[in-house]
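Data card: per-record layout.
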Amino acid sequence: MRGISAANYTALQNRVLLPRDFVWFVVRDRTTGAPVTDGYWSDIGPITADVIDPDTGGTSTRTWVGAGSLISISNIPLVSNLTVQNVTVTLSQVADRVNQLVRLYDCKQGRIEIYRGLFDPNSRVMVAPAEPRFVGTIDEAPINTPAEGEDGDVQLACTSNTAELTRSNTDTRSDASQKRRNPVDEFFQDVAVVGGWQQFWGKEGGSPRNMPGYYKRPT
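The structure for this 219-residue chain is written out next.
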């Protein structure tokens, strides 16, 4: 079961439902490689709003611009397992801010965070910091040039961070690799040559690989 804050739970119980989405980008400057942040929300005008930081669990205050640039967010399945989720965020190509984000900066493998906040419809104040719904990376950011008279957009294909759990470890069993973990660990210091060592068993000598009962560890 997904946990929510007490304020959000009370708002849901009282049917005070005015949801708004928040999208946060962390991309790179093409020249310096420095991180660049930008945020959008699904309403009008700029706003300063709190969100729950998905890394620390603390509250983070950020500034977001209005929904003129944010067209849509595809469905985000809420699952309790480690299934890799794919989300498409569509932005307006005619917005100057979006053009600066996708053309001036490098979005490839940039970070994306999507939040959902609940607002009181009377006061128009968010009842609690927005909760994270999706955290991942931007896989593709194609800029579609429309034909005359058609609307253009930028569709960001995003993958959740659980995709990192599917990557295989490229590390090997070697002395150098082990020393990176612990400089004084000598467990693998002879791994490159131990297969050729001559061991004498009774009256016969030979490589341990050729000895009866030798166990070869699966790679």
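Known properties of this structure: Residues 6-166 form one domain. The mean pLDDT is 81.

See the next section for split statistics.
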